[in-house]
Amino acid sequence: MTTTSTSRPSPQPRSFTAADVRVPGHTHVLLITTGSVASIKAPLTVKELMSYKNTLIQVVASKASLAFYTKEDIAEASGGKVTVWTDEDEWGPTNFVIGSPILHIELRRWADIVLVAPCSANTMAKIAGGLCDNLVTSLLRALSPSTPTYLFPAMNTLMYTHPLTAKHLAVIREEIGYTVIGPQGAEGTKGKALACGDVGIGAMTEWKDIVGVVVEKFGLIKDACTPPSSIRASISD
């Protein structure tokens, strides 16, 4: 009796080299999403950023963040123009060849600004501790101090008020030099209902305000040709 092999060919790794894809006169925005339900706002953030002239975006997603949106959501929001990079792209099925581009280094070279939105409690702790155990944390550890980097925390109220959170934020602000914005309810701002049902501190800064950080920093101008948003309601405000 003969058998037919049903094995599939190994997927080919995606290549990315900053020098080949950076475009002069454009703003290169790197959006990092981590394991908070606020990652569901990533497609909205991407679509709004793309409504500005001369703005290019790459997304780096932790494995946990893709529980809340899909690569297809980003493709829909961007018209297929934005790539979502994951651990599999850095450590794929093929053997590394000396001299090949290293993804987290190339993404670092590409970015003019980095937004960690949302930043979960887990990723915050990893950043403060210097861990490099996935594409997100490896990229952040490799960033140049001159690259503007913004953290937008998002977590349950008790996770945010945990004593270690304040220590982690102090390291991130004072030693690493990232700008931390939010969460809602912190530093005298108004809290809101969280996804878990609690009300208080912890919700991520509104996605439109996150986009506003980039717009203000780089003086971005709206593209008059951008069509109205058509993203489905399940990921809207």
Describe, in plain words, how this protein is organized in 3D:
- It is a single chain.
- The longest helix is centred in the last third of the chain and has 14 residues, at 163-176.
- This protein has 237 residues and is an alpha/beta fold.
- The protein is built from ten helices and eight strands.
- It has one domain: Flavin prenyltransferase-like (Rossmann fold), CATH 3.40.50.
- It comes from Agrocybe pediades.
- Residues 28-217 form the Flavoprotein domain.
- It holds the Pfam family Flavoprotein.
User: How many structural domains can be distinguished in the coordinates?
Assistant: 1
Task: Give the overall shape.
Answer: globular
Uncertain runs are 1-5, 229-237
Quaternary structure type? single chain
Estimate what percentage of residues fall within beta strands. Answer: 5-15%
Work out the number of β strands. Answer: 8
Helix content: 25-40%
By CATH, the superfamily comes out as: Flavin prenyltransferase-like
Ends: how far apart? 59 Å
Mean pLDDT: 89
Q: What CATH architecture label applies?
A: 3-Layer(aba) Sandwich
The secondary-structure class comes to: alpha/beta
Helix segment tally: 10
String of helices and strands: HEHEHEHHEHHEHHEEEH
What is the level 1 CATH name?
A: Alpha Beta
Task: Report the radius of gyration as a whole number of Å.
Answer: 19 Å
CATH topology: Rossmann fold
